[in-house]
Amino acid sequence: MVPCKKNAKRLGAHIVFIDESGFLLIPTILRTWAPRGKTPIIRHRYKRDKVSVISGVSVSPQRIRFGLYFQMHLDNIEQIEVCHFLKHLLRHLRGRIIAILDNSNTHKGNLIAELQKRNPRITIEYFPSYAPQLNPDEGVWSYAKRSLANGRPDNLEELLQTVADSLMKISKSQPILRGCVEHSELPFRLP
Prior knowledge:
single chain; Nucleotidyltransferase, domain 5; five-stranded mixed β-sheet
């Protein structure tokens, strides 16, 4: 259930919309320019290496400031990485936090319940099943993957740097983050 805007404001809580995504060494191809009659070719080394990223779009209690927090991993994101990310949010955001996640099994379980029990500042809520259109963090992934399209990192280190640079650019842009929240299908209005 998505928390009511009035309740979050009254509680003085940061709302953080959380999701994960993966980035591969295999390039994402989008429409591009090429001379007429010439099909563009992007050469790359076929490697299935990837970077998994967990991130959260935060909205301040006053609904004025936006933030992007993220952590990158070389393996799939499991419940332990979700707990580390939630602890990261607790270190960086003052006051109460309402974390909203999808219904993935990695977002539920003993580790998450124990973390929530030990940290009463954080409340964990869940989006309805099969509703990615409600999560503003999906807009971050869309923007990041578009900005990386048609590129071809040669190795995992270059991919890590490229993804980090893209996410840092997004995190510094209040208009992009605000757009991610406004373009989601949340029943959530900003001033």
